[in-house]
Structures are given as structure tokens and as C-alpha cells.
Design goal:
5 strands
């Protein structure tokens, strides 16, 4: 199952980008044997500053056709890392070809796009900068493959 992160904003050379690149490499290496990956990052940018409503169609075009859509949203479900790993494994086992994790801009994800989502996840009740959400998601994706592979990376 191919994994996509569809996000608003361009991540320039930064510590966050270095972390994302590292976790993406780890995910691809570990996930390959599990039928997960590759992990692709799709960045969109609303140059006119139209907010959520302008970002929604850009994000929709970045989502592969037929992909399971999972929004990263403060109103989403909070789950443990093992539960997230099991969810990812279940989607794979159901034969999903693609899953797209959608990260909105500074104002979040437009309600029209949230309504199309198959799932919605949250990293807690706090609001996180969308660039950090990318780092946290890429780490959790790698952690999920580690859990599914029985690796010692994840400790309880």
C-alpha cells in the first residue's frame, strides 16, 4: 500500500525537512517487506492566500484517485502508536492501494474536504504547527512499520 502525505506549504531546507527525510527513508526500508510504501510527500501552496477554501481543491488534486483519505485534524481520533500500526496494517490487508494523510494549512482543513475523509486522526487536543505535524506523522508512520515488523524501536 502506497502512503502519501498531502500537505499545504512548501518545506524548505530545515531541521524539520531533515527529520522527515530520515523517517521517510526508514519507513521505506522497513515497510517494503510489509507491503507498505513508498512514502511520498505532496506539497501544495495557495499563492493567493485564499485560506482553507482555496487550499481544499489543491489538496484534492494531490490525493491519488481512489485513495483512502485520512485527515490530520484536532477533532480527529486520538490513538496509541500500536493502535495506529494496527489501523495501517488493516487498511493494507483490506487491499487499499493508496492511503493519503492530509495536513491542512494554518487554518486547518476545509469542512468540505474533511467531509470526504474516510478517517481523521489527531495528535491530541493541542494545536500543532502544520510543519511539525508532518514530522510527527512521518515518525509515527515509521514507528508503525517497526511495530508491525516486531522491531525493538517501539517500547511500551
Amino acid at each position: 500500500m502506497r502512503v502519501h502525505v498531502c500537505a499545504v506549504g512548501r518545506l524548505r531546507k530545515s531541521p524539520e525537512l531533515e527529520l522527515i527525510d530520515d523517517y521517510t527513508t526508514r519507513f521505506d526500508r522497513t515497510g517494503r517487506a510489509l507491503g507498505l510504501g513508498p512514502l511520498s510527500i505532496h506539497e501544495v501552496e495557495d499563492k493567493k492566500g485564499g485560506g482553507m477554501s482555496a487550499e481544499a481543491p489543491l489538496l484534492e488534486r494531490a490525493i491519488p484517485k481512489g485513495a483512502l483519505i485520512c485527515t490530520m485534524d484536532e477533532r480527529g481520533k486520538v490513538m496509541s502508536s500500536p493502535d495506529f500500526a494496527n489501523l495501517l496494517g488493516r487498511w493494507r490487508d483490506e487491499g487499499r492501494g493508496d492511503v493519503a494523510f492530509v495536513i491542512g494549512g494554518a487554518d486547518g482543513i476545509d469542512p468540505s474536504l474533511r467531509a470526504k475523509a474516510d478517517a481523521s486522526l489527531s495528535f491530541g487536543k493541542m494545536v500543532w504547527p502544520h510543519m511539525l505535524v508532518r514530522v510527527m506523522l512521518s515518525e509515527q508512520l515509521y514507528r508503525a512499520t517497526s511495530i508491525l515488523a516486531g522491531s525493538p524501536y517501539h517500547r511500551v
